[in-house]
Amino acid sequence: MPSSPERVAAIILAAGKGTRMKSALPKVMHKIAGRSMIGHVLANLAPLQPQRVVAVIAPDMDPVRQEVAPLPVAIQAEQLGTAHAVRCAREAMGAQAGTVLILFGDTPFVATATLRKLVERRAAKDEPAVVVLGMRPADAGAYGRLVLDRQGDLERIVEFKEASATERAITLCNSGVMAVDGAILWTLLDLIRNDNAKGEYYLTDIVALARADGRNCAVVEAPEAELLGVNSRAELAIAEALYQGQRRAEAMEGGATLLDPGSVFFAADTKLGRDVVVGPNVVFGAGVTVADEVEIRAFCHIEGASIEKGAVIGPFARLRPGARIGAGAHIGNFVEVKNSNVGEGAKANHLSYLGDADIGARSNIGAGTITCNYDGVLKARTEIGAEAFIGSNASLVAPVSIGAGAIVGAGSVITRDVEADAIAVARGEQVSRAGRAKEFRARRQKQKQQKPEIR
Question: Are strands 330-333 and 318-319 parallel, antiparallel or unpaired?
Fold first, then answer.
């Protein structure tokens, strides 16, 4: 790779309307593992530290503009081919020394290592003007073919529609991704004409033009899976399945146990520690970090949360954004935690909602407890001190503070602060009337006999 990251720039083509997606959302904004396709491209590109990146989009693609911000965008008002799309980036990109990578917003899996190989090949001693990323798919289909000369250098790219029978028999295919010498990129693009079957300006013509100018061209190969393009909902599902399979394998290789790997779904940024155990049907949304020795039991949904060492989550728990679960804490079945800190060793084992709360270490939250955090206009916090005990079916009406070591009686509605080590009970007085239940049942049975039941 070049010694200076300033020698790398990139143009991402993202103006495709994606009509086969049948969606109001631009194609490159559809998500895989919770991250947009163009977001995957940017994430894989980032480690190369490019000096400049420009996204080429169509008019009225504000979601894409927002997704790539603060990167500059260029507008392709008419779709006249891939070379035309790259030309649209000229003003935003400007003159660039070194290598310009040309990528596609709907080809999300080109790995950082592969991009690095393209840049390294461009910087080799023979200084190829163009390096094309090739592949050998199981079904070459209608891909353009990469024609090599006797020395193994790239001679030209031929589109399938214009290829001869001999050329169609070539198994080395064009992915569209390439690395071009920035010093001559715009000169070569200006020479491309549209006298072809589609009447479009093919970026692939850049190879023949560079060769005609006496410059060398080369090929770097990558696995077909990296070069999967997404053009329909069905292909999006295939891409999701492919990505999830890779992430599951990486998680297990990294020291996590997945009891039923095929039912666990990761986000693009999920981080798992070592000796983590993940049960069946667990879904990770964006922004989840799991420390070592955590157990996540079946049917949990977790997003925007951090879980510290040795905690136990679930089954059937939901951690929403802002949930921070302390070391050794327990979040049990049908417990929802949102924007709350659950302290070390604290337990909420059943049927609770903990929203906008700070829960002290080793506290116990009884079944059915609710932090009533929203008054219809504003949200407020609940503070629960260390080693507090909250009885079952308690409602804590925020803003409210429960002191360390305090006990809240079951069924209480707490609206005022409770001092440390106090017992707070806030419920109606129990009244018992002897014999009244027997009288009630007799009266109701008589009424039932006098009036036929309506079904």
Answer: unpaired
Which residue, among 64, 45, 65, 62, has the nearest Cα to 53 in the 3D structure? 45
Fold of 5-227: Spore Coat Polysaccharide Biosynthesis Protein SpsA; Chain A (3.90.550)
pLDDT tens digit sequence for 42-97: 999 999 999 999 999 999 999 999 999 999 999 999 989 999 999 999 999 988 88
Asked if residue 424 lies in contact with residue 414, where contact means CB atoms within 8 angstroms, the answer is yes
Q: Where are the domains of the chain?
A: 5-227, 233-424
Residue 454 pLDDT: 54
Catalytic residue list contains 30: no
Closest residue by Cα to residue 294 from 282, 281, 311: 311
Report whether CATH 3.40.50.720 matches the domain 233-424: no
Q: How many CB atoms lie within 10 A of CB 150?
A: 6
Alpha-carbon distance of 60 to 63, in angstroms, equals: 9
Catalytic residue among 84, 301, 330, 350: 350
